[in-house]
Amino acid sequence: MKTRFRGVKKGKKTLPDGTGPWHGCRVAHSDNDGTGRDPLRKSTSRPSLARTFGPHAGWWIALAAVAGPIAMALALTPWRGHLDTGDNALFLVLVIVAVASTGRRLAAAVAALTSALAFDFFLTRPYNSLRITSHQDLITELLLLVVGLAVGELAARGRTHRVAATERSDELALLHSVTELAASGQDARVVIDAALAGLQQLLDLRDCHFTRHDPGHIAARITPKGELLVGGGSWTTEDLGLPTRRVDLPVRGNGWLLGHFLLTPTPGHRVASGQLLVAVAIADQVGSVLAADDPVHAPSGSKGRNTDMTPNDQPLRGPNA
């Protein structure tokens, strides 16, 4: 059965004649949402330790993990003959919890080990010695070490979940900003500019631009399912990041291939699968705007449209064509 193809029409407002690729690195936004603020720069991220304590936050935390338990044990030495060893251990647990609250697993482990050694050296008989003569003191020291390691592990996992939740919130904010521009009837150029800036921020790209023309052969391509294919094979971005050359993100609208976002990744930057899905959703929002400005329909008689992307600017055939 022969299939009739129809070319993609030029949009009147979308891409005027002579318009070249649009580069995300040089896109500036101002008052797109009517509030005087750039919606793409809204972030739900909380202040990080690096911003609070400066670029050497890790060193400060490591110092606290070593010096904190020793300082606490020294502070307890005047009362070591009056307090029970279990009470002394609880004070050291407080130091471990304080260090573990930073979410650094290694720092919490160091604090737990240092607390156990400081407890042994300063607070158990014979004093100022690593020997332990009491069976009860030995059990207390071991429990102190185990509890410290467990608290550190729980705190580290909690920090991982908080960071992941913050990243998902930021990704949704980026997608919502582009979706709001598309839904509010903004010009296609405004939506594409916002999408370029959003993609660069989302995927930490060195450069990105949009084109309606055939980009030629590009080995790496993001599928509508958020998967990255390189030379026909799957590429794990969570471990390897995006390929260091160029990645094609097709723009779909009304079942047609209407353009391409060409992404230049940052080497070594890992990208989660969820981020690729958000990137596809942003591209689809641009596709919906382009399709609305320049509606193109599938061949008559087709019951549906094939949304599998091909590396050219030809309209997509229906599955029953």
- Structural class of the secondary structure composition? alpha+beta
Order of helices and strands: EHHHHHHEEEEHEEH
* Major β-sheet annotation: 7 strands, mixed
> How many domain units?
2
- Identify the CATH architecture of the largest domain: 2-Layer Sandwich
The value of Rg in angstroms is 29 Å
Q: So what's the overall shape? A: elongated
Poorly predicted tracts of residues:
1-47, 297-321
- Determine the number of helices (DSSP H or I, runs of at least 4 residues): 8
Query: What would the CATH topology of the largest domain be?
Result: Beta-Lactamase
Distance between the termini: 7 Å
Strand order of the largest sheet: 1-2-7-6-3-4-5
How does the SSE layout of this entry go?
Blueprint: E1 22-23, H1 49-53, H2 57-76, H3 85-100, H4 105-123, H5 135-183, H6 188-203, E2 207-211, E3 220-222, E4 228-230, E5 233-235, H7 237-240, E6 247-253, E7 256-264, H8 273-293
Parallel strand pairs: 3-6
Antiparallel strand pairs: 1-2, 2-7, 3-4, 4-5, 6-7
Helix pairs in contact: 2-3, 2-4, 3-4, 3-5, 4-5, 5-6, 5-8, 6-8
